[in-house]
Amino acid sequence: MLTRIDHVGIACHDLDAKVAFYETTFGLTVAHRETNEEQGVHEAMLLVAPGSYVQLLQPTRPDSPVGKFLARNGEGVHHIGYGVDDVEAALAALGAKGVPLVDERPRHGSMGASIAFLHPRGVGGVLTELVQSLP
Ligand code: MC0
C-alpha cells in the first residue's frame, strides 16, 4: 500500500527561520511554499530526493492542529506522510481493518496532492498521512 516516505512534517514557530536553517545546514532547497487555510498551516516543502521532502509547518492560528501540537510539545516531528497510489482505496482498506481515520475522504494537500490522515491513537502514537501525488 505504501510506496515511499513522501515527507516528514515538522512543526515550527518561525517558518522563514526554519527554512533558512535547513538550507544552510543541509543544503536543501525549497520546492514549494503555500498556505493551507483549511489545515491552518503555512508550509514549505524542501526536496531531499525525488518524491521525498522535509515539510516545515508553521500554524496560522493557535487552535489549529499544529498550533495545539506546538503548545503541548514544542517544535519537532509532527507527522509522517507516506505515498500511496490510490488514497480512497487505501482509506477503505485501512477503515476495514479498524484503523481510526481522521479523514473519511481525501482533502487538499501540498502541491495539489490528495491527502488523508490516520489518527495517532491507531498508529502507535504517530500521526500518519496518506499522500496521493498529482500524476
Ligand atoms: C495530537 N496528538 C498527536 C498529535 N497531535 N499525537 C501524535 N502526533 C501528533 N501530531 C495526540 C495528543 O497527544 C492527544 O493524545 C490526542 O492526540 C488528542 O490531542 P488534541 O490536541 O486534543 O488534538 P485533537 O483531538 O483536537 O486532534 C488530534 C488530531 C488533529 C490528530 C485529530 O491533530 C488532526 O486532525 N490532525 C490532522 C490534520 C493536521 O495535522 N493538519 C496539519 C498538517 P492523548 O494521548 O493525550 O489523548 S497539514 C499537512 O501536513 C498538509 C497540508 C500536507 O501534508 O499537505
Total individual domains: 1
Strand content: 35-45%
Q: List the uncertain runs.
A: none
What's the CATH class label?
Answer: Alpha Beta
Structural class, from helix and strand content? alpha+beta
Number of strands: 8
CATH topology description = 2,3-Dihydroxybiphenyl 1,2-Dioxygenase, domain 1
- CATH homology-level superfamily: 2,3-Dihydroxybiphenyl 1,2-Dioxygenase, domain 1
Q: Quick one: biggest sheet?
A: 8 strands, mixed
The mean pLDDT is: 98
Distinct compounds present: (S)-Methylmalonyl-Coenzyme A
Distance between the termini: 17 Å
Radius of gyration: 14 Å
Looking at the overall shape, the CATH architecture is: Roll
The string of secondary-structure elements, in order, is EHEEEHEHEEE
How many separate helices?
Answer: 3
Helix content: 10-25%
Layout of helices and strands:
Elements: E1 4-11, H1 15-26, E2 29-36, E3 41-49, E4 52-59, H2 65-73, E5 76-83, H3 87-96, E6 107-108, E7 114-118, E8 128-132
Parallel strand pairs: 1-4, 5-8
Antiparallel strand pairs: 1-5, 2-3, 3-4, 6-7, 7-8
The chain binds (S)-Methylmalonyl-Coenzyme A.
(S)-Methylmalonyl-Coenzyme A (MC0) binds next to strand 3, strand 4, helix 2, strand 5 and strand 7.
